[in-house]
TrEMBL record:
It comes from Mesonia sediminis. Pfam families: Glutaminase. Homotetramer. This is Glutaminase. It is an enzyme of class 3 (hydrolase). The keyword Acetylation applies.
Amino acid sequence: MNYQAILNIIEKDLVNYDDLGKVADYIPELAFVPRHKFGMNLACISGENFGFGDHQETFSIQSISKVFTLALAKKYAKGIWKRVDVEPSGNAFNSLMQLEQDKGVPRNPFINSGALVIADILVSTFDNPKQVLLDFVHEITNDTSIAYDEEVAASEKKTGYRNVALVNYMKALGNIRNEIDLVLDFYFHQCSLAMSCKQLANAFMVFTNDGILLHNNKQILKENSTKRINALMQTCGFYDEAGEFSFRVGLPGKSGVGGGIVAIHPDKYSVAVWSPPLNEHGNSEKGMRALEELTSLTGLSIF
């Protein structure tokens, strides 16, 4: 299949499409990102990459990082599912009401409360979880240039009151084991990871390829773990818009409020798209349209 030709069609169709979305500004550093940025990259199981636009420019991946931390927790920790559930939330990603209803057990690891529990697990597991996460991302991408954006991390720390509330509430109910400041510092840094569409597409090839790295054929994650992570991306990767994404795109994926979306077709490709304006659910509007067009033009979805 000529993926580059298909991406060229998507670029032509959408490059001048100005959606009504809003660039995230509750994290002040994100508000400075130009709304016209638009890039897309597809990494094929053959090892080839295809892309257009701003696909090699880095941006804050935000909640996309939750897939990486869950993979690490699955690889090194035990008892994860006693502390976080695997059900779709149906509510906003930072809902306090749902956490109260569920007695401090987050509905899934991709909403903020669930990712904070995973962060707590990794803080318990590693002396330096920030370095372990960075090393993991370097390994799965075969790219050591990827780093945290310290300005974004500081911006999140300054304004992350809702996350502070979530972690304190779970601490009160016994589902956070470490000091709150340690957990939040790790969480804010994981969200600040700066990556390009190309780097993200390459990173998610490990979930496309049954946990095996393309560049050295190393089995870094168990096949069963990638199956479960992909299932969670399908049902929970877009918060209260997960059903809409499945309906329109038909691939497992994960979004971030930095405007990025990554999706995979098992055993075929991984694709990342970046467009900062977000819809009312906190997902990139143009990004969703681009991925919907991709699966329509290729005729490939998991359904």
